């Protein structure tokens, strides 16, 4: 049996694809694995803020097309980058155990975000990170920061920014923990929907591959990912809206927190809900509906109309 893994060629994507390859080999020593590197639109447009290119699916489309043409058998994605809709015939077949979902602050000079003086330049292209920081630190200058994880760290170290925010998961995977000055707890900065999970996508009629890959599925992570992605899907939010969603299973209960705001973090809607882990999608949808009714609907409409 041979499995061809489609992956982007960034360091993080390759690390993740190799990690999955190793895990599969551990379970099935006889399996032959090949990595197929694919360049996506998101890798090509590296100078434009993601929110302006219409972020949805930017890092997955070309990989899905290769899978439909049967040039690859599975794709390993950062689940955070995977849209909630799939092309006909494709879908997620495994969610791996969640890596640390929190966001991290990196800086050469400052040991925390509150150490940064008025006017200091914070780099992030994430509307979610930007809005949540602006709610607490109105006097920072927030500038776009694009590129792969290693590129972003280089830009920080070259002095283009006084501080930057990145997902701790990617930093851990690439061995950059030593650059981290502060880790934000989810109640300070709600993580992105699905931050820290890897999602494995396959052709839904490929029973053999599905059976093999399903050994990597982590049940609790699958439940949390489903709750968060149902929340995202109900809000129809791409990267164009400041939106966050984070779930946990505590004492057998599934708890999800969601956040939607305008681009400046001035009008924001945040709430939590608890339910049973057996219906994660229902809980995610219910929370999204609640935020919409609280006023998020209006904010979303304004952003989509470009009035904001
Ligand atoms: N949008 C890019 C992206 N997609 C996934 C990760 C990190 C790893 C993860 O969340 O699983 C990153 C980098 C970042 O946001 O710092």
TrEMBL record:
InterPro entries: HemC, Porphobilin_deaminase_cofac_BS, Porphobilin_deaminase_N, Porphobilinogen_deaminase_C, Porphobilinogen_deaminase_C_sf. The modification S-(dipyrrolylmethanemethyl)cysteine is found at residue 239. One of its GO terms (cellular component) is cytoplasm. It comes from Persephonella hydrogeniphila. Pathway: Porphyrin-containing compound metabolism; protoporphyrin-IX biosynthesis; coproporphyrinogen-III from 5-aminolevulinate: step 2/4. The porphobilinogen subunits are added to the dipyrromethane group. Monomer. It comes from the Bacteria. PROSITE patterns: PORPHOBILINOGEN_DEAM (PS00533). Keywords: Porphyrin biosynthesis, Transferase. Signal peptide: none annotated. This is Porphobilinogen deaminase.
């Amino acid at each position: 049996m041979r499995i061809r893994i489609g992956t982007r060629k960034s360091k993080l994507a390759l690390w993740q694809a190799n990690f999955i390859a190793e895990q599969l080999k551990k379970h099935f020593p006889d399996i032959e694995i090949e990595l197929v590197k694919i360049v996506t639109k998101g890798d090509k447009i590296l100078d434009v803020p993601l929110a302006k290119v219409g972020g949805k699916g930017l890092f997955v489309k070309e990989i899905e097309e290769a899978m439909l043409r049967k040039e690859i058998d599975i794709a390993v994605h950062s689940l955070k980058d995977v849209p909630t809709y799939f092309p006909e015939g494709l879908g997620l077949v495994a969610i791996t155990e969640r890596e640390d979902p929190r966001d991290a602050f990196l800086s050469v000079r400052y040991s925390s975000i509150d150490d940064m003086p008025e006017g200091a330049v914070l780099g992030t292209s994430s509307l979610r990170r930007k809005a949540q920081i602006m709610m607490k630190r109105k006097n920072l200058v927030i500038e776009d920061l694009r590129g792969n994880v290693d590129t972003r760290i280089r830009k920080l170290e070259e002095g283009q920014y006084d501080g930057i925010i990145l997902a701790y998961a990617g930093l851990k995977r690439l061995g950059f923990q030593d650059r981290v000055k502060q880790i934000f707890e989810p109640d300070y900065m709600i993580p992105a929907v699905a931050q820290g999970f890897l999602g494995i996508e396959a052709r839904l009629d490929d029973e053999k591959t599905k059976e093999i890959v399903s050994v990597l599925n982590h049940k609790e992570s699958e439940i949390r990912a489903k709750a968060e992605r149902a929340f995202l899907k109900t809000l129809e939010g791409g990267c164009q809206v400041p939106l966050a969603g984070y779930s946990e299973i505590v004492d057998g209960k599934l708890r999800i927190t969601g956040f939607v705001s305008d681009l400046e973090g001035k009008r924001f809607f945040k709430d939590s809900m608890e339910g049973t882990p057996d219906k994660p999608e229902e809980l995610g949808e219910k929370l999204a509906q609640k935020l919409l009714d609280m006023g998020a609907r209006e904010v979303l409409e304004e952003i989509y109309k470009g009035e904001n």
